[in-house]
C-alpha cells in the first residue's frame, strides 16, 4: 500500500484512543469511519472528539467551522463491513485483550481486500500473534499512538515477525502525514516507552 492511495481510514474502537486517532486522521484530510460494538460507544467517541475541540473554540483557538469539518469527515457506525468498505487501512483500537483482537483481525481479514493494511494500537500485545489470525501477516503492523492521540507526537511502529518492509515504510509515512513522529521499535513486551515508564511509575518516582 502506498500513502497516495489512502482515501479512507477505518478506526475500530471509539474509546479514548480510537476517538483520538479518528480525529487525527480526519484532521489530516482522510475520510474516517469509527466503529464500536454499540451505538452508545460510538456516540461517546464523538463526544470525546467534540468536547475538547469546543473548549478550544471557546478559547478562540479554533473556529466552530473547523470543528464541524473534523466531525463531518468521521462516520460513526456499529457495522464492521460499512466501516471498512473502501478503506485502505484499518487501525485497531479495541480493548487490550489478545482473544478479542485476534477475533477482530480474523473477521477483518475475511471482509477486507488483501492489500488493506491492518495496524494495531496495542500497548503491549504481540503483533506477530495478532497477525497470525490473518492470511496477510506481512501487512499487519503495530502503530502505537499515545494518549491523548491528537496531542502526543510519538507513534511507535512495531513490526511483527512477518511484517514486510513496504508495510513498515507505509506505516511510517502515514504517521508523518498524520503530523506524528514515528519511531520503529522491536516487538517486545511494553515496547520502548512503556518499558521505560512502568518501572518508574511502580517505583513511585516521576
Ligand atoms: N488509554 C491509553 O492511554 C492507551 C495508550 C496507547 C494505547 N492504548 C491501547 O489502545 C487500545 C484501546 O485503548 P483505550 O484506552 O482506547 O480503551 P477504551 O476502553 O477507552 O476503548 C476501547 C473501545 O473498544 C470497544 N470495543 C471492544 N471490542 C470491540 C470490537 N470488536 N469492535 C469495535 N470496538 C470494540 C469498546 O466498546 C471500547 O469503546 C488498547 O489496545 C490499549 O492498550 C491505550
Give a structural overview.
The chain has 206 residues and is an alpha/beta fold. It has one domain: Rossmann fold (3-Layer(aba) Sandwich), CATH 3.40.50.720. The chain has eight helices and eight strands; from the N terminus they run E-H-E-H-H-E-H-E-H-E-H-E-E-H-E-H. The chain has helices at residues 16-27, 39-58, 64-72, 80-84, 98-111, 127-131, 165-177, 193-202, and strands spanning 8-12, 31-35, 74-77, 89-92, 117-120, 140-145, 154-159, 181-185. The chain has an eight-stranded mixed β-sheet with strand order 3-2-1-4-5-6-7-8. The N and C termini lie far apart (41 Å). The relative contact order is 0.14. The structure holds nicotinamide-adenine-dinucleotide. Nicotinamide-adenine-dinucleotide (NAD) binds next to helix 1, helix 5 and strand 6.
Task: Describe what is shown at a glance.
By secondary structure, this protein is of the alpha/beta class.
List keywords for this structure.
206 residues, alpha/beta, Rossmann fold, 8 strands, 43% helix, 19% strand, globular, binds nicotinamide-adenine-dinucleotide
SSE layout and pairing:
Layout (H helix, E strand, L loop, with lengths): L7 E5 L3 H12 L3 E5 L3 H20 L5 H9 L1 E4 L2 H5 L4 E4 L5 H14 L5 E4 L6 H5 L8 E6 L8 E6 L5 H13 L3 E5 L7 H10 L4
Parallel strand pairs: 1-2, 1-4, 2-3, 4-5, 5-6, 7-8
Antiparallel strand pairs: 6-7
| CATH architecture annotation | 3-Layer(aba) Sandwich
Low-confidence spans:
none
- Classify the secondary structure makeup into a structural class: alpha/beta
N-to-C series of helices and strands: EHEHHEHEHEHEEHEH
Estimate the helix proportion, in percent. Answer: 40-55%
The CATH class turns out to be Alpha Beta
The gyration radius over C-alpha positions equals 16 Å
Average pLDDT rating: 94
